Every structure is written in structure tokens, then in C-alpha cells.
Amino acid sequence: MAEPLVLVSNAGAVRTLRLNRPAALNSFTTELHGELLAALEAAAADPAVRCVVLTGAGRAFCAGQDLADPAVAPDTTPGAAPKDLSQVIARYYAPLVARLRSMPVPVVAAVNGVAAGAGANLALCCDLVVAAHSASFIQAFSKIGLVPDTGGTWLLPRLVGPARALGIALLGDKLPAEEAARIGLIWQCVDDAALAEMAAALATRLAAMPTRALVATREAMNAAQQLDLPSALAEEAKLQGQLGASNDYREGVEAFRAKRAPVFTDR
Ligand code: T3D
Fold first, then answer.
1. What is the pTM of this model?
2. What CATH number matches the domain at 211-258, 1.10.12.10, 3.40.1000.70, 1.10.220.110, 2.40.128.110?
3. Atom 18 in ligand 1: which residue has the minimum CA distance?
4. CB of 141 shorter than 6 A to ligand 1
5. For residue 56, what pLDDT is reported?
6. DSSP class per residue in 180-197
7. 68 lines ligand 1 (CB under 6 A)
8. In ligand 1, which atom is closest to the CA atom of 118?
């Protein structure tokens, strides 16, 4: 039987999804897309999962689209019709971004090596991005005549501002993890040897937190990008109204008053 393209493991309430095409730097084929989306759906549907970690097998996180995949690679035969990449994006990448950005639990990217093209933006779609010191981020699209996809045009200017976003996207240079953390593209850069432990500790911490409040925070911050202040205040009031009726809020306040650690259970 063929090895899975996404390795799934559990540690307590943390589910780790490991992209597993190391010989091709975990680049995306249609099969990998299918397995990753299914693994994310399964994690989203499993009440025992309270945080997801996304990482890569081998020396890379993900090198984006597999450029050797005949389904998408240009046919260089003279006169051959061009492939319609809009279909590839609509069918595979857009659903992946939508699924990641709407997960009912926080998602941590543990970027263990190079993250290029769609692979870089896959990582940036996650809620917190921790990268090994030797990892790097490359908006490789411009080098092959494409525009950033997998949410790159939306994410990059929001994360680092329009000037840096455009420089990163136009030049397609390798951005080392340390620099990515310095400019606010990612949450943290850690020693290579510490990555797995740090990502696990972060995920375990998030898993013990009030999940609904974390997810509502992500959603409110995303929504606020499009809102004026009065509308953002109204959105905060609406969410606070919902969360104020939750078991987790009651538990958080009770635990505070009793000077004990809270045990959050809502999801
Ligand atoms: O096309 C569409 O469907 C639209 C969607 C597009 C989304 C995208 O992601 S477009 C961007 C696609 N990705 C890239 O352009 C990145 C291509 N890869 C690289 O630039 C380099 O491989 C890296 C900078 C990521 C790493 O460089 P390096 O020197 O560490 O490794 P390498 O030697 O280049 O690669 C190692 C192997 O992985 C090599 O195979 P081999 O020679 O050992 O058999 C290489 O061909 C393979 N590999 C790396 N990236 C890809 C890949 N194979 C297929 N597709 C790849 N993207």
C-alpha cells in the first residue's frame, strides 16, 4: 500500500498533519491536495482535537505546486493549448485556504524548511507560524511568470505592509526565517533542534485555552480589516455577547476567583 501523503498523529488534544512527499519537497499534487483537505476536515469534525499543527517531512515544509505534475505543467509542444490554471486554483488551492482560515480550532504551522510558492502561503494561512532557523519563505511565483496565490495577495500586505509585500512578491527572493520573524511575517523563529518541541508546546498551550474565543478572535481580526471603527466595535459587542453566554467564560471567571487553573471544554 502507498504511504500516506499526509501523516496524521495525535498527542493529547493536538493533531499533527505532516506533508509527506519529501523527495519532491512536499510539493502539491492533486493527491496531496485531496489528502490534506480530508485531514483538515477530519480534524475540524473531531471534538477531541483542540489544535492542529501543520508541518513537513524531510528538509522542506512545502515547495508549492508540483511543477512536474502533467495536470498543471505547461505542455511545451509547439501549438499545445495552455493549461487553465484558474481551474487548478479554484478546485484545489482556494478550498484549502478557505478550510484553513475557518478551522474551528487554532492552527500552528511548524515550518521545518523551505516554504515556497503556495507552500509559503499555506504556512502564512495558519494562525501562528513558528519556523526553524534554517527555514525560509519564497514567493516563487514571479520567477515562473505567475502571481502569488493561496491567499498571498491578501495575506502579505496585511502581515508586513504593502511596500514589503510587493518587494517580497516581485523579487521572489529567499526570506530567511529570522528575517521573516523580524518583519512580522511570522510569529517566531527558533533553533532547528527546538522546532518540534516549541511547536508542540505552543499547540498544547493553545489546546488548553478557550477554543471558541480563540477562533472568534481570528475571525474578528480578519473581519475588522474591512470595517470602520464603529462597525468593528459592533462586531466585538456581538461576539462578546455570544462568548459571554459560553461555558468557557463561566469557567474562566470561576477559576480566576477560585485562584485555580481553568479547564476549558467548549469547542
Ligand atoms: O501551477 C499551478 O497549478 C498554479 C499554482 C501555483 C502554485 C505555486 O506554488 S507556483 C510555485 C511553485 N513552486 C516553485 O516555483 C518552487 C520550485 N522549487 C524551488 O525553487 C526550489 O526547489 C526550492 C527553492 C524550493 C528548494 O531549492 P533546493 O536547492 O533546496 O532544492 P532543489 O534541488 O531545487 O529541489 C530538490 C528536489 O525537489 C528536486 O528534485 P530532484 O532533482 O532531487 O529529483 C526538485 O526538482 C524537487 N522540487 C522542488 N520543488 C519542486 C520540486 N519538484 C516539483 N515541483 C516543485 N515545486
1. 0.96
2. 1.10.12.10
3. 63
4. yes
5. 98
6. HHHTTSSSEEE-GGGHHH
7. yes
8. 9
